[in-house]
Amino acid sequence: MIHRTTAQFPGVPWLAACQRIVDSLPAGADACVQLCPQSAGALTMAVADALRARFPGLRFQLHANVALRPGSPERIDASTVCAETLPWFRRTAAISRRLGAARYSLHAGRRQGASFAQMADNLRRLAQEMELPVAVEGLYPAPGDPFLLSTWQEYRRLLNNDSDSGPDSGLHFAIDLSHLHILHCREPADPGLVRALLASPRCLEIHISDNDGRADQHRPLPDPPDQRWWWPLLMEAVRWSRAEVFDEARSAALSRKTDDLTPLTPNTASQAPARQNIIPPVPVEVPDQHLIKPLLLVAQGGPALPPAGGPPERVTGH
């Protein structure tokens, strides 16, 4: 199943966004909602309690630099773990426990804040501090090369568990296929590497949305979605991967049907102030005309898949 995120409803308050998601779900669905920075308002303990009370059938988890209270630091990622931000991470852990979250994920961050090795050390420190699995989300190339985990070499290094001083302790990670699409448009992807990343037991999340290959735009996927080079690899991976798949496409309201996404009707709630995600470096263009139909990842009727097979333990070369 493709799980939903509050990022699909930018500017909508937490409870309202989750209500839109719940209204779309089939009865008895085992659904996880990812709580994202695009939602309006602070995610306080009171809000967490209200989410659990109103939606007892949902699982929740936090993602990235969610606003927890007024004045929360804007730069929260794996390159900004320091004395100033640790209280924020500890509060994130407390709210995650209150929600019963199984993990937390955050972006890799910026090169000006950390090296790859320092980022890896930060992630291990966070996992100990938060007492949760912490998954780092890789990024994509941008002018000036600002982002960590934005090259195929770095993704291979993450997969192969390499650090400057030798093998690390095995970092968990999240793969955003829309980010890989931006990288692929600059340097064609090695399908074997992408297959191995998606199938790795350390891959805890897979994020999907669409873009034009130039910037992170969080568009709905084309119809049919197998127009994207990575779709067959995703369909192959979900047959046996432990990772949960999250839809991050913006400007779409979920209908009660499970096989359709319809455009969001503009309203005053969608214009409410929301915390800005720090990662997209350029303005976002989101067309409303695209629809995505397959919300359940099932083999029946899916696109033809490449031959299945277990990924290699290590990937070398390019």
What does this structure look like?
This protein is α/β, with parallel strands linked by helices and 318 residues long. 27% of the residues lie in helices and 14% in strands. It has eight helices and twelve strands. It has helices spanning 14-24, 45-54, 86-99, 116-130, 152-160, 177-186, 191-199, 231-237, and strands at 2-5, 32-35, 59-62, 104-107, 134-137, 162-163, 166-167, 172-176, 203-208, 244-247, 252-254, 261-263. The strands form three sheets. Strands 3-2-1-10-9-8-5-4 form an eight-stranded parallel β-sheet. The protein has a two-stranded antiparallel ribbon with strand order 6-7. The protein has a two-stranded antiparallel sheet with strand order 11-12. α4 (116-130) links the parallel β4 and β5 (134-137). α7 (191-199) runs parallel beside α8 (231-237). It is globular, with a radius of gyration of 18 Å.
